[in-house]
TrEMBL record:
Keywords: Kinase, Transferase. It comes from the Bacteria. Transmembrane segments: none annotated. GO terms for biological process: organic acid phosphorylation. This is Glycerate kinase. Belongs to the glycerate kinase type-1 family. GO terms for molecular function: glycerate kinase activity.
Length: 382
């Protein structure tokens, strides 16, 4: 029997590779002769680097970067074992969690650090980039990232504009003559699970600006500046990014990646499962096991268990989801290819108790063992 185990992490508790190994150990007690294929998965957000590094036999790299407030710090990204693929979480360098609540100001935060991660990966010879752009602290249209990669964003006096979305109002000319020449030989895939345009009432500033510290007045200013940025890009390069779905992601980072790196904006789960060749593995499996911290009706929107199940459904493979908890209307997920769902909770407990890694490990192991025993019992009753 071939069993593919492809879970996401149990956030704030267990990593995806830990979850996969614990499930395997639970099943080994019952099916010691089975072949197990462990594929930790993520959806492009937090945990993507860890999951991809584990699956691609890669390494995590720590780099000195410029944080969203323009101060020096450190961030990480991943490189595949063959040295060809870089996996970057924008949040690592330019994320909201890097900015204390009292200092959050979407007018001044910069994406420069994300550009520094890309540059370091270019220096190490990477040709393919997978970039997750969730959780950003920025609203600069990716301007900082572009500056880190050699693009000159010039004011009317021929000087570089400053950091942050507020500085885009000064932009007069974009000079790409010194953009890192290696970019043209690379493929960029962007894990983008939102469809917001760059500007307007559903754009980057109005929808995401407030959570990054933007007041109502700031939102209007930032939106105006992104419109100005988009117009200069259109005039200079004949690229219209203002209304393209996904360009409003991460404060407009999606727009910059699309316009200057010819990036493909795709749902994160699609990028990750394609990179991991999950389709091929599942097509040859007898059973697929997936999971994450919580399943509910919202999980159909790009979450790992449903993404895995959709692949399995193509090949009519049975899927079991083992999760931390089952939330509202979790039963609505069944039509998407999951055949059975199990929560690992065995008794009433507080959230802090169940998130404790030792408790989560024990609950997950016991639940996995019980599921395996039930499957074996079912086979004897045929």
């Amino acid at each position: 029997m071939k069993i593919v185990i492809a879970p996401d992490s149990f956030k704030e508790s267990l990593s995806a590779i830990e979850v996969a190994n614990i499930i395997k150990n639970g099943f080994l007690n019952v099916y010691p002769q089975a072949e197990y294929f462990l594929i930790p998965v993520a959806d492009g957000g937090e945990g993507t680097v860890d999951a991809m590094v584990d699956a691609l036999n890669g390494n995590k790299i720590t780099v000195s970067i410029t944080d969203p407030l323009g101060e020096k710090g450190f961030a990480f990204y991943g490189i595949s074992g063959d040295g060809q693929t870089a996996v970057i979480e924008m949040a690592s360098a330019s994320g909201l969690e890097r900015v204390p609540v009292s200092k959050r100001d979407a007018k001044i935060t910069t994406s420069y650090g994300t550009g520094e991660l890309i540059k370091d990966a270019l220096d190490k010879g990477c040709k393919k980039f997978i970039i997750g752009i969730g959780g950003s602290a920025t609203n600069d249209g990716g301007a900082g990232m572009l500056q880190a990669l050699g693009v000159k964003l010039l004011n009317k006096y021929g000087n570089q504009i400053g950091y942050g979305g507020i500085s885009l109002s000064e932009l007069d000319k974009i000079d790409i003559s010194e953009i890192d020449h290696r970019i043209k030989d690379c493929d960029f895939e962007v894990a983008c699970d939102v469809t917001n345009p760059l500007t307007g009432e559903n754009g980057a500033s109005f929808i995401f600006g407030p959570q990054k510290g933007a007041s109502l007045a700031d939102v209007h200013l930032l939106d105006k500046n992104l419109k100005h940025f988009a117009q200069i890009i259109k005039n200079s390069f004949n690229i219209d990014i203002e209304s393209t779905p996904g360009t409003g992601a991460a404060g407009g980072m999606g727009a910059a990646l699309l316009a200057f790196m010819n990036a493909k904006l795709k749902p994160g789960i699609e990028i990750i499962t394609e990179t991991l060749n999950l389709d091929r593995l599942i097509s040859n499996a007898d059973l697929v096991i997936t999971g994450e911290g919580r399943l509910d009706y919202q999980s159909i929107n790009g979450k790992v268990p449903v993404g895995v199940a959709r692949i399995a459904q193509k090949y009519q493979k049975p899927v079991i989801a083992i999760v931390g908890s089952l939330g509202d209307k979790a039963e609505t997920i069944y039509p998407y290819g999951i055949n059975a769902m199990f929560s690992i909770l065995s008794k009433v407990a507080t959230l802090s108790e169940v998130l404790e890694p030792a408790v989560a490990r024990a609950n997950l192991f016991q639940t996995s063992t019980n599921i395996a025993l039930t499957l074996k019992l079912g086979n004897t009753l045929k």
